[in-house]
Specification:
Length: 781
DNA sequence: GCTTCTACCGTTTTT
DNA sequence: CGGTAGAAGC
């Protein structure tokens, strides 16, 4: 146990840690030891006699919460287990479960993720006969989210003339109806979406004084990390909870607010003083992370923003190298240059792969980077993108789990009522849907009482439906008698999913099966107590009083609680220890640091992004984003841009980003030839010409293979079995070339199998991990 | 009801 | 380019 933890802090850090009572705002510049202060502050509270049960710490990601919890545990020991530390969503989901009855929700309500919400909206549009081109599900959802974040209920909305008028003018008069239907359907399904978690928490704290009182007393000390990224709904929750004791400590940096698009309100931090007039402010301005060059260059750029709190980030660190700029003709070349630069830094300075990060504005930019890294045999990992829990096979399985817990969950029901195929088609489901909405009840209720509705469904299918209902019900019963793994495995087996995936011997089928196995392994570890629930919070809000009459069985519904709130990063421990280059969006990089950082795609309309160009506030957010990007670096920043870029399969020309010009020249190392300011620099036609005349390597597929080449769609439905271990061998020292072939991309890979020479053709290579969708493999003897 | 094919469409960031 | 909705065929 560390005794002198306070000695490890500088003066302003220590002051911020020791001022435990009353409202406190800590403005923490990039790299100023923010996490350390937060950690020690909590430790200090606990050491000072505060019951950890009374501390609530809200973080931005589950990962951040977990990391901080570990650090605190090292200082204060096992007492840290009782801390309430997690994201807004996960903490308040737990609270809502404890208090669900007050809002007439079941305590085992389902959490809808974005996909669920979208498909619900799609279903509503279809039923209402509304054109989904005019009302695009994603924009409808975005608007719903926006409204809920402002704490406007669907009832208030549809009563408000101004909104109605606005929607009419916007050409979307039905929006109010869709919104109401959406809310009602969620409620009926016993489901909350992400925004509901916060919205309903607000309702709970607003309309139930005794509940508010209870939690105000419970959470005597509240800490909020990344306060600059809280939205209105979150702001209100914090305000209500902290109203009694006012022991609220917010930590943030207005210069790093990058989530306004999601409703984050930078005013929350800018106006903190107005909300709590007697607050104390602490500024952490010394940067311990980066070189002087990086800190100064970053300061210079962010200074262009008008709206910000006053602070001066400075550093004692060495001057360091200039920021290097790479320029390339195309995005692919940009990737090559970046890979080469990484390679040379690795060689010259004995740097490890994990010391590098490549950051970009949009996920789509990862591809050229991946390709170049792979060609240079530099291992990498992409963060973000599709999370484990968003994969089809996992979602299918989870849908059954969700149904077991809450059969009213219509999104899950729709997902699996005919998966694996059991002869229940669209028409049948449509009829049931109609019956449900005619009687204003849920689909599940119709299914349960099928005989009471004279539906035009033949007896055979009726029986199938009845079987389905019986099956789901039997799962529900087993929730209390079996542990998570036993039930999970039972479900996988009886539904036929296990067999379905096992029988699928395509490459993608195989990886699906592996994913399912991984899910089941997770359940197993959880069931035998080797692993906590995916989101690890203290058991329940009631723990102090209610003694455990509950059995010690670790059940599936305990495991399932907040699974929708998990992201890729939360899956297992993994990665951290791997020696690989990290690739991620700038958003994802917040809170991380790397010795060498590459910020790529610095082109006008890309970074800053084109959608942010017309609005000053948006542009300032882009600038903050850029600020975040370069301040991740400890030793060296390398910026890169391409003068033309493939987008949507087309080569388009682009100009260098304005951010490049905003960096003080003395900190920037321009590429030698030609100068950036040349007017000839972006001779787009020339680039095109070069592209076209470049002699592309021709691949002539073996005639025997050529006739076997199949389209994506064909491949999708073709189960061709082969030994996947061959693929793994093949990846060593292979030579990958691309060629367009009909629709999609055909990639020829040549490599040496243990015994045979092989040529492999893949249609539509999933570049992600070289794990291939739609693969065909042939071995030449 | 299931499979296959074709035509079109979107393209920011995420708890 | 890659994904998907809906039409056409089985």
């Amino acid at each position: 146990m560390q005794r002198n933890y306070l000695d490890e802090l500088n003066e302003s850090q220590r002051a911020a840690v020791q001022c435990t009572e009353g409202p406190v705002m800590i403005v923490a510049g990039a790299g100023s030891g923010k996490t350390r202060v937060l950690t020690y502050r909590i430790a200090h509270l606990v050491k000072g006699g505060v019951d950890s049960f009374n501390i609530l710490a809200l973080t931005f990601t589950n990962k951040a919460a977990r990391a901080m919890k570990e650090r605190i545990a090292r200082i204060v020991g096992p007492e840290s287990r009782n801390l309430w530390m997690g994201t807004f969503h996960s903490v308040f989901a737990r609270m809502l479960r404890a208090e669900a009855d007050k809002l007439n929700y079941p305590s085992n309500f389902t959490i809808y993720d974005t996909d669920d919400s979208k498909s619900l909206i799609k279903a509503i549009l279809k039923e209402q006969g509304i054109d989904d081109k005019v009302y695009k599900p994603s924009s409808v959802l975005a608007r719903i989210s926006q409204i809920k974040t402002l704490l406007i209920s669907h009832k208030d909305y549809s009563r408000n003339e101004i909104y109605i008028e606005d929607d009419k003018l916007a050409g979307r008069p039905h929006f109010g109806t869709i919104f109401s239907l959406y809310c009602k359907r969620c409620f009926k399904a016993g489901a909350m979406d992400f925004d509901d978690l916060l919205f309903n928490t607000n309702i709970l704290l607003r309309d139930f004084p005794e509940v508010l009182f209870k939690y105000q007393n419970k959470f005597k000390y509240i800490l909020v990390d990344e306060y600059q990224d809280t939205n209105h709904s979150q702001y209100e929750i914090v305000k209500r909870l902290a109203a009694r004791f006012q022991n609220i400590c917010v930590v943030g940096d207005d210069a790093q607010s990058i989530y306004a698009f999601r409703g984050a309100n930078i005013r929350n931090i800018l106006n903190f003083e107005k909300d709590y007039p007697d607050m104390k402010t602490f500024k952490l301005e010394q940067n311990y992370r980066s070189t002087q060059t990086i800190v100064k260059a970053a300061n210079g750029v962010i200074a262009k923003n008008k709206e910000q709190l006053k602070k001066v980030v400075w550093t004692d660190n060495e001057k360091g190298e200039q920021i290097k700029l790479l320029r390339a003709l195309t995005d692919n070349e940009e990737g090559i240059q970046v890979a080469q630069e990484i390679f040379s830094i690795k060689m010259n300075r004995q740097a490890k792969n994990k010391e590098f990060a490549i950051l970009y504005r949009t996920n789509a930019q990862s591809r050229p980077m991946e390709e170049a890294l792979r060609r240079n045999s530099i291992p990498y990992k992409i963060y973000g993108g599709l999370s484990f829990y968003q994969r089809k096979e996992i979602k299918d399985m989870l849908a059954y789990f969700r149904l077991a817990v809450n059969p009213n969950d219509e999104e899950s029901l729709a997902r699996v009522i005919n998966y694996p195929a059991r002869g229940i088609g669209e028409t049948t489901i449509g009829r049931i849907r109609v019956a449900a909405s005619d009687n204003d009840i849920g689909i599940w209720t119709v299914l349960e009482n099928l005989k009471d509705f004279s539906l035009d469904i033949n007896a055979g299918i009726q029986n199938k439906l009845a079987d389905f209902v019986t099956m789901i019900k039997s799962f529900g019963v087993m929730l209390t008698t079996h542990n998570a793994y036993d039930l999970g495995y039972h479900i996988a087996k009886t539904t036929g999913i296990l067999k379905e995936l096992y029988d699928d011997k395509t490459v993608e089928g195989l990886s699906r099966y592996e994913n399912l196995e991984e899910l089941l392994n997770g359940l197993k570890e959880f069931s035998v107590g080797e692993r906590e629930a995916p989101i690890d919070l203290p058991g329940s809000f009631e723990t102090q009083n209610s003694e455990t009459t509950v059995s010690h069985l670790r059940t599936l519904d305990a495991y399932m609680q907040d699974i929708a709130l998990l992201t890729t990063e939360d899956q297992k421990g993994e990665a951290e220890n791997l020696d690989v280059v990290s690739l991620m969006t700038v958003h994802l990089a917040k809170g991380l640091e790397f010795p060498y950082v590459f910020v790529t795609g610095l082109e006008e309309n890309l970074f800053p992004h084109q959608f942010s160009m017309d609005d000053r506030a948006d542009m300032e957010e882009e600038r903050r984003l850029f600020y975040v990007a370069i301040t991740r670096a400890e030793k060296k920043v390398t910026l890169s841009f391409a003068t033309s870029r493939y987008r949507w399969g087309k080569l388009v020309s682009s100009d260098p980003s304005r951010f490049l010009e905003e960096i003080d020249q003395q900190y920037l190392d321009y590429p030698k030839q030609p100068a950036l300011t040349d007017s000839n620099h972006w001779d787009f036609d020339k680039v095109i010409q070069q592209k076209e005349t470049k002699n592309k390597p021709k691949i002539n597929p073996h005639p025997a293979l050529k006739k076997n080449l199949i389209s994506q769609q064909q491949a999708k439905y073709t189960n061709k079995s082969f030994d996947p271990s061959l693929l793994k061998d093949l990846q060593v020292g292979m030579n990958v070339q691309h060629e367009r072939f009909g629709t999609g991309k055909v990639v020829s890979m040549e490599g040496v199998f243990p015994n045979n020479k092989a040529t492999v053709f893949f249609d539509g290579v999933g570049q992600k991990q070289l794990l291939l969708k739609f693969a065909r493999l042939e071995i030449l003897r």
